[in-house]
Amino acid sequence: MKNKKRIIQINKPVYEEVVLKSTEPYFLMFGADWDHYSLYLYDDIKWYVEKFEGMINFGIVDIEIYRELFTEFEITTIPTMLILEDGKEYCRTEGYIGRMVLEKMMYDFFGYLHYTPMYEETIPKRRIF
């Protein structure tokens, strides 16, 4: 049976020991359990975990659990999504975004020049520079 990737809850030890030392990029969603937009995005992100398996890791940062990371990244709006590469912010989007914008963010990160989500089913196995 294939190992399923999952979305991990980010706290201080996980961030310092896993995220910062990862060789794969990380997609982080900063949100809160009580924010309905964060919950909507969480459902969308679950779909992308399988689609981008082996290419990027996914994590959730809850404001009630790890407020210091919100301060470190200067997060002022929830939900906020970041892609980290080598521990540094690559891109960010703030507020609720639909699945199409979230997918475009991922495709842009992986170097797609032409974005057609209705017809494009393949994803490059490595980033194009």
**H-E order:** EHEHEHEEH
* Estimated radius of gyration: 14 Å
Distance between the termini: 34 Å
Number of strands: 5
Task: Give a concise summary.
The chain is an alpha/beta fold and 129 residues long. The chain has helices at 12-19, 36-51, 67-72, 99-109, and strands at residues 7-9, 26-31, 57-62, 80-85, 88-94. The chain contains four helices and five strands, in the order βαβαβαββα.
Tell me about this structure.
With 129 residues, the protein is an alpha/beta fold. It is built from four helices and five strands; from the N terminus they run βαβαβαββα. The protein has a five-stranded mixed sheet. β4 and β5 (88-94) form a beta hairpin.
Chart the SSEs and their pairings.
Elements: E1 7-9, H1 12-19, E2 26-31, H2 36-51, E3 57-62, H3 67-72, E4 80-85, E5 88-94, H4 99-109
List keywords for this structure.
129 residues, alpha/beta, five-stranded mixed β-sheet, disordered C terminus, single chain, 4 helices, 32% helix
